[in-house]
Amino acid sequence: MTERPVAGLKVIVDMNLCESHGQCVFAAPQVFAFDEDDILVYEPNPDVSQYKKVAAAAAACPVRAIRVEHGTEGDAPADGPESSR
Amino acid sequence: MNTQAMRVVVVGASLAGLNTVRALRDEGHTGPITLVGEEPYGPYDRPPLSKEFLTSDAGHESLSLADTSALGLTELYGRRALHLEPRERTVHLDDGHVVPYDGLVIATGAGARSWPAPRPAAGVHTIRTLDDATALRHDLRGARRRILVVGGGFIGSEAAATVRELGHDVLLAHQGPAPLHRPMGEDAAFFVAELHRAAGVSLLSFATLTALHGQQRVTSVTLNDTHRVGADTAVLALGATPCTEWLTHSGLQLDRGLVTDAHARAVGADGRPHHRVVGAGDVTRFPHPHTARLLSLGHWSHAVEQARTAARTLLNPYAPAVYRPVASFWSSQYGVRFRAVGLPMEADRARTLELDLERRRLEVAYYRDGRLVGAVTANRAGRIAQYREQLADDLTAMASA
């Protein structure tokens, strides 16, 4: 049996774009937070139960720095909410 | 009627207009959508216009909010809505077009308050549209000059900071005791004033513009009827007025904006909401549990979130969505990042938890009748989420009470 991607969520933030607006922290506080210097820290592989919140976070980002990939078993990473825009 | 076949017309190719369209498509609406915009551009991002757009050479494409081609729209740009016939369900455009609708989204935003008296032909600017900012940017090129900024709101304060960073001499004239005093209160305004002073911007408090002078180009202005100040360029940031002129005879309730209910529906003169006419963004005034008056918000997130409500309400007229937002807004000046939630302007008391000029950090909480209504931080983004959560919980509790 060949190796397949594990089902789950992948969150990618372009830190060159991020301006720490915090909209993602509001939308998905279990995934996004700030450190003491206002730099965004986040869980790159959150639990799938966070999908809706993470998608809302991506949609709320004013600089569109967040990409979400919803990988399902056997599939290539599926389109995140960004790609339908 | 079947909402899938509904013809939707969105007036305003704005952030709110675009996000209504997106939400309609996300919610599965496949019917025709027409997006009408007065400016010759598709939806673009306005916050950079008073900031990095002024210091860059980037073209208008850099501000584009979306590739609209995937949304399946009829896009009519460079055309202004002249009036609305709600009985016939048509929007009349300035090129003679009459656009019929089954569902209408009013997202015409707000315009820069204009100067009502005569003014010189050149050197006087407002900052609202891409063309405004492009013209100002052109005027700011080259050698050091005297730039007067009038207005102590966010646009005025941000513009003063940006122009100063370009190396010009800047005088910021504003009506209150300090810039941003009205939206953020005393301590936050003091903090902002200190940022300006440290950067070498001159501040003139309690100043009202009373005249602009110059034959062709502005040469000076008069403040408070008597105080004459020389200027090579004047930036007028006198506030925004909602674009509702085209709705004057529509029968919709107008009160310094389009009055919408908690479901983003336009309210008729008889006080009853329209089921097929919704509003979103800067143009609306709407009820909010944290204030007794109707609220108008010029914030980015308000435009996005009210648009979502408007779309859902349009598609589900018998189970309309509710708009009860925790407001959220931000500003950037001299690299200091301001983050705010709630309605600080509604407060009767402010509590300052941190004001550190050296590290350029600020945290202020705002209360009304002892209840938290908002918070502002500067370079303390990590502190803002807790306030936002508290405000959200409070709104939820009020809704179920």
Automatic annotation (TrEMBL), chain A:
InterPro entries tied to this protein: Fe-S_cluster_ET
Entry protein name: Ferredoxin
Pfam families on file: Fer4_15 (PF13459)
Keywords: 3Fe-4S, Electron transport, Iron, Iron-sulfur, Metal-binding, Transport
Entry keyword annotation includes Iron: yes
Listed PANTHER family: FERREDOXIN
Cofactor (UniProt): [3Fe-4S] cluster
Keyword Hydrolase tagged: no
TrEMBL record, chain B:
InterPro entries attached to this UniProt entry: FAD-oxidoreductase/Apoptosis, FAD/NAD-bd_sf, FAD/NAD-binding_dom, FAD/NAD-linked_Rdtase_dimer_sf, Reductase_C
Protein name: Pyridine nucleotide-disulfide oxidoreductase
Key words, A-Z: FAD, Flavoprotein, Oxidoreductase
Residues of the Reductase C-terminal domain: 329-395
Residue span(s) of domain FAD/NAD(P)-binding: 6-307
Gene3D superfamilies named among the record's database cross-references: 3.30.390.30, FAD/NAD(P)-binding domain
Pfam families named among the record's database cross-references: Pyr_redox_2, Reductase_C
